[in-house]
Amino acid sequence: MFDLRLPIGYFFLTVSLILVAYGLICPVETQFAGGKINLNLDWGLVMGLFGLCMAALAHRDKSCSQDRFDD
Amino acid sequence: MDNWQVGFVDYLIILLYFGFVLGIGFALKKQMVSSEDFFLSGRSIPSWITGLAFISANLGAIEVMGMAANGAEYGAMTAHFYWIGAIPAMLFLALFMMPFYYGSKIRSVPEYLKRRFNEPTRAFNALSFAVMTILMSGINMYAMALVFKLLLNWDMSASILVSASVVLAYTALGGLTSSIYNEVLQFFLIVAGFLPLTVLGLTHVGGWQALSLRLPEGFCHLWAQTAGTANPMGIDWLGIVSGLGFVLSFGYWCTDFLVIQRALAAENLAAAQRTPLIAAFPKVLFPAITILPGMLALALIPELGSNSDNYSYNQALPLMLVKFYPPGMLGVGLTAMLASFMSGMAGNITAFNTVWTYDIYQSYIAKGKSDRHYLWIGRLATAFGIIISIATAYLVMSFQSIMDYMQTIFSFFNAPLFATFLLGMFWRRTTPWGAFWGLVCGTTSAGVQFILMNQGVISYCSPMAGNFWRSTIAWCVCFFTTIAISFITRPKPESELQGLVWGTGPKGDTSGLPWYKQPTVLACLIIVATLACNLFFW
């Protein structure tokens, strides 16, 4: 069975790209802790980082197991 | 602050989610070779996946919309569902019951009842469970239709058909594995979709202290006002501890095949034991993204709780989404809601198709057919279950609150069943006919109480108090009837109870595991966290 972290990682990365792009093209400011934030941009980056970690972990484990198989 | 409208970007995120969910189903289709692959995932899944699926299968409409609605209606006392209800039950399941479930190699909960007791007990439980899962599956479709009508102005029937089609596609293709994999994706999506809402809402009102000043008296306390019934939930501590803390929660978490099926898919006994424990860690923190948004909604949306359909308590979470999320994040929030409804629905459907195929069809309708035949029947049962669920979605509409509907169902089926399991697993003298008649009488007593309450013969301070007390009484009726009949009927010989009763079962050897994989260590950490939450919000 495939590594579940891959589709999760790719899904979060894709959503992140949409949010970041939309946040840059149509910036909307949301009130937060006395200041203002661009929620799409900021949360999009957080989601992207999570997606990247999941995908990277899956790829790392895949190459590790491939190395063991080759040995 | 004006409410945001759903835009193109939000639809794009929803479509992307549908694509990934269906993609996972298609990718797994080739690996569904045998019925064990389809119904039990070949017992090969790591515990982090089964653990997150365990909690996600429970993260349906009830957990997300229902808990937010209850947060707005009853305040912090709703967290009793987690910190006195779910957590102790999940620990009990992991430490004491899972060795029997996993160790006896059963394929379903009714199958355990057959081996421990007799065929009639299994048949009764299989039929009642099949009815219950279908009724529960309908809740998720109804909740989704409600949200989509409010936010997207979609026709309710169209929403129900769309969600049913997507769930049907991925569960029929990839079976339990597809359901579990999607549940894990849904778990992360739900956290990503709702966590910012809590943070934004809390900073908007000025923090927890400021929130407590804006809510009615007692709305921010768990136990402080439970000496009597003068509290938002209208129930005292005894009712909470017995009805919710013991009967309803243990009944659900320890006997409901919907969640136990996730643990049975684990790769070994230790992983199966860790499944509810891994689930318990996020469960301790979940009130922050399920109940708190409801409480914030009560403080920030003055119309909430009015007679208007658009401002009923059930709408607390969707209303918070459109208040705080701009287009883009609104799509993420909506997709998180969709994910929760679909995971709740798929969880029920996969449990239904397994019980139908193994415990009803294979046992009573067509014995001795090929494995391929049962695999085909499982796929057919998935479609059939979804069609019936659509009908039950319309039944839910007649109930005022989703949570009341759910707890009513649980009081009928899960509360007496827990008494049967408790006696069956921990008292060897329990006889097959004692268990059968105890279960029948317990379920019947819940039905009689429900009718008497609807006729006005008996009344409680709130529908929730009625559910708690009805469950407690149904549990007691089942418990004492089982004991009484067990004393006058013949028990099973010891040789037939191996691995099924306390003291005869396999004990998972966890001595070689690192400390962070030891079930007892994990359980202790969870107990400390739960106690801390109870004390902090006392």
* Rg calc of chain A: 17 Å
CATH class of chain B: Mainly Alpha
End-to-end separation of chain B in angstroms reads 33 Å
CATH superfamily of chain B: Sodium/glucose cotransporter
Helical coverage of chain B, percent range? over 70%
Tally of distinct domains of chain A: 1
What is the count of DSSP helices of chain A, taking H or I runs of 4+ residues?
2
Strand arrangement, major sheet of chain A:
1-2
What oligomeric assembly is this protein in? heterodimer
The CATH architecture of chain B can be given as: Up-down Bundle
Count of alpha and pi helical runs of chain B = 21
Tally of distinct domains of chain B: 1
- Bulk shape of chain A: elongated
What percent of residues of chain A adopt helix (DSSP H or I)? over 70%
> What is the N-to-C order of secondary-structure elements of chain A (H for helix, E for strand)?
HEEH
Distance between the termini of chain A: 22 Å
Uncertain spans of chain A, ≥5 residues at pLDDT below 50?
none
Radius of gyration of chain B: 22 Å
Query: If interface size is counted as residues with C-beta under 8 Å from the partner's C-beta, which chains form the largest one?
Result: A-B, 26 and 33 residues
> What string, H for helix and E for strand, traces the elements of chain B in order?
HHHHHHHHHHHHHHHHHHHHH
What does this structure look like?
The complex is a heterodimer of chains A (71) and B (538). Helix content of chain A is 75%, strand content 11%. Chain A is mostly helical and 71 residues long. Chain A has one domain (5-70). In chain A, strands 1-2 form a two-stranded antiparallel ribbon. Chain A is elongated. The two termini of chain A are 22 Å apart. The model of chain A has no long low-confidence stretch (mean pLDDT 85). Chain B has 21 helices and no strands. The radius of gyration of chain B is 22 Å and the shape is globular. By secondary structure, chain B is mainly α. The mean pLDDT of chain B is 84. Chain B has helices at residues 8-29, 35-40, 47-57, 61-74, 80-103, 109-116, 119-152, 156-205, 208-214, 237-255, 257-264, 269-285, 287-290, 292-300, 316-324, 329-365, 371-396, 402-426, 432-454, 463-488, 519-536.
